[in-house]
Amino acid sequence: MGNCCSDVAGGRTAIGGTAGGLLNPGNTSNDAVDNFFKSRGYQGLFSQIELSFSASGLRDRDVLSKSDPIMVLYAKGKNGALEELGRTEVVLNSLSPTWITKQTLIYHFEVVQVLVFHVYDVDTQFHNADVKILKLEEQQFLGEATCALSEIITKRDRSLTLDLLRQDSTRSGNSQKCGKLKVYAEECVGSKTTVEMILRCTDLEYRDLFSKSDPFLLVSKVVENGDHIPICKTEAIKNDHNPTWKQVFLNVQQVGSKENPLLIECYNFNSNGKHDLLGKLQTSLVELEKLYSGGQGEHLFLSPAVGHDSQTKVLKSRLFVDKFSESIQYTFLDYLAGGFELNFMVAIDFTASNGNSRLPDSLHYIDPSGRPNSYQRAIIEVGEVLQFYDSDKRFPTWGFGARPIDGPVSHCFNLNGSNTYCEVEGIQGIMMAYTSALLNVSLAGPTLFGPVINNAAIIASQSVANGGRKYFVLLIITDGVVTDLQETKDALVKASDLPLSILIVGVGGADFKEMEVFNSTYLGCRQRR
């Protein structure tokens, strides 16, 4: 073994198969954080997606036969530029083609990924040409469609039918429908099964002169040519010849299958990176499960040195499996397919520290040119992502820290001005309610988060009580440090067992470091539950 890490603490850290980094990622200082999540079956809020395509009702552009359609997929950037992602094959003589060629791309939850689809009729003279080198400007354009990837994967059956549109040359600015395009999305996940194991060794050999060994396990999969590909390693345990390591999580997809051979090597940790091999075992997940069921240990062995004729040495040391359990780790898209929705909620800071909203230096200033202020940008950037996951797009929206006309300071008022309901229609509804509120309230203070968190928690708890399948995301936008620190902590603790996440976005130049305590409070409560 070569040098695993650049420092002793890093070298002793488990990589790729433990829950330690997952529960407290802030304390994990190696480069394998992503592998931590993957090895426990958590893929994050991104997935590899395979798109399939079919069309119907295409226009016939050929004289003696039907059109020969090809579909080209583009990603649309924020600046409107199109980047080609791929092309299907050409389907001959069809106005309702089902293309075989799939397109694979990475879905990111936090990004609005706009896709554009162009359909062309390929001229007969190019039928034998590779589609990759076709000059699209030489083909007849049949129509285009556009959507966000989120719109496809939020559908229950993960399919979306779009109108194909084509500019009508006879009517300036008008588009003409010229068929339909159906897009189907499928998540590319080989296996969602994760195996959790607790491994233990007994009677390990002495390798250190003045102390016991510092053992750790390295788990590798054995590939067809006999090479070993490391999957994970446990932490190194100091001075212990009968160690029990923390649980290891292996995704079956990583291993290949439960029958695939695995090599488990036990090393004595050395800070110089030259770790001593204490013994090894070739096995599989199937065999490890049998060890667990039978309560038996398997002897480790050492292979003879290269060039020596001596036999493999079976050691007194044994490996035991104290826990072996399988679980299915569902992905974010699985929950969406099961009918779960995200519900977006917004709370906006109207305290006086934002400055007079009529003056250009105010954080609440509405620029006549249409350029959004910091509050508007936060609403747009978060809201545009989350809106696709909410079917009715009705968003609870509040303000806090302001004095409504002829009233006392309110720390949670409905932004739409209603006394009975707090919802507005879509992101545009939030923007309109925000602009209107600036004209109808006086900025005041102090900055209190507790009341809006409690209101969001009430909505989330009512949804749970009614059997709703919703997960709520509360966005709090503020310009200053919170005043009711303890009350906010208490509200977070009470809300921690609800389907509710809270995003706090700071705007302006204030120091928001104190708010980091909310993260540890909220996450700490959730982990204990």
From TrEMBL:
Keywords: Calcium, Cell membrane, Lipoprotein, Membrane, Metal-binding, Plant defense, Repeat
Keyword Metal-binding: yes
Gene Ontology MF term list: calcium-dependent phospholipid binding; metal ion binding
Pfam families attached to this UniProt entry: C2 (PF00168), Copine (PF07002)
Classification via CDD domains: C2A_Copine, C2B_Copine
Biological processes annotated in GO: defense response
Domain of life from the UniProt record: Eukaryota
Keyword Membrane: yes
Membrane protein topology class: Lipid-anchor
Main location: membrane
Domain C2 stretches: 28-162, 177-301
InterPro entries: C2_dom (IPR000008), C2_domain_sf (IPR035892), C2B_Copine (IPR037768), Copine (IPR045052), Copine_C (IPR010734), vWFA_dom_sf (IPR036465)
UniProt record similarity statement: Belongs to the copine family.
UniProt-recorded name of the protein: Calcium-dependent phospholipid-binding copine family protein
